[in-house]
Amino acid sequence: xxxxxxxGCTLYIELSKTPTLDSEVVCAEFGGVAELSINKIGGGISQxxxxxxxxxxxxxxxxLNYKVYDAEREAISFCCRTISSKDxx
Length: 89
Hints:
This protein is mostly beta strands. The protein has one domain (2-87). The chain has strands spanning 2-5, 8-16, 25-31, 34-38, 51-55, 66-70, 76-80, 82-87. Strand 2 and strand 3 form a beta hairpin. The two termini are 18 Å apart. The mean pLDDT is 84.
């Protein structure tokens, strides 16, 4: 799910251990998303097997602090300003 606010985009990704309804779920919130690329996703549950976060603040990109990407399947990648998470189950 994405939302637009104050000219920026917020991306929410729900992460779970297993694809069952009773699995523990963590919701990751990525604020100020840019350069979003989505590949090989759709048709039900999609897997990001190895989601990595790199600190890119030293590159001094305008308002971007992190690069997030799926290192296994290259299913998703983007840069963002903020990252937070919360348990939802």
